[in-house]
Amino acid sequence: MPAKVIVVYESKYGNAKLVAETIAEGMGQVEGVETVTSEVKAVDLKKIVDYDAILVGSPTHIGGPTGGIKKFIGKLGKLPLEGKSFAAFATYLVDKSFEQATKKLEKRISDKVPGAKLAATGLSIRVAGMKGPISEGELPKCKEFGSRIATQLKA
């Protein structure tokens, strides 16, 4: 049976969405891994338990993830997700916020979702301006991140 992955994101200007899609593209290069991307508002919580891995992404908003992503992670805590793999990703604009939102996402997931396993250290992707675009040289990191997690899930 294929490993099933959902990549959930919130995106105001499309940057986090592009990161999510590129991560999914990297996962798609690994045979036996099925990946779905979904905006956080469209996620069917009843189906989350069917996935082997849940990736959560957000733009950096005041040094952390968006409110919608925080609420989503809170809801995940009410589901039987023990042993599921997780990973976080975030886009950032200012160097001082590099990895800040990603680390907060990882901490929130480990605090709110008992038994969750971190599939990989989070990914922080730089954007060139408030509305983007994603900085040059960043998208290949997304593809590599997806491929690495997918390979690990298949192992």
What does this protein look like?
The protein has five helices and six strands; from the N terminus they run βαβαβαβαββα. It is α/β, with parallel strands linked by helices. The chain has a single domain (3-154), classed as 3-Layer(aba) Sandwich (Rossmann fold), CATH 3.40.50.360. Strands 1, 2, 3, 4, 5 and 6 form a six-stranded parallel β-sheet that branches. Helix 1 (15-28) links the parallel strand 1 (3-9) and strand 2. Helix 1 (15-28) packs across helix 5 (139-154). The longest helix has 16 residues, at 139-154.
The portion of residues forming beta strands comes to 15-25%
Total count of helical runs of at least 4 residues: 5
Helix/strand/pairing category: alpha/beta
Q: What is the class in the CATH system?
A: Alpha Beta
Terminus-to-terminus distance: 13 Å
What's the topology here?
Blueprint (H helix, E strand, L loop, with lengths): L2 E7 L5 H14 L4 E7 L5 H4 L4 E7 L7 H10 L8 E8 L7 H13 L4 E2 L4 E4 L12 H16 L1
Parallel strand pairs: 1-2, 1-3, 3-4, 4-5, 4-6
Helix pairs in contact: 1-5, 3-4
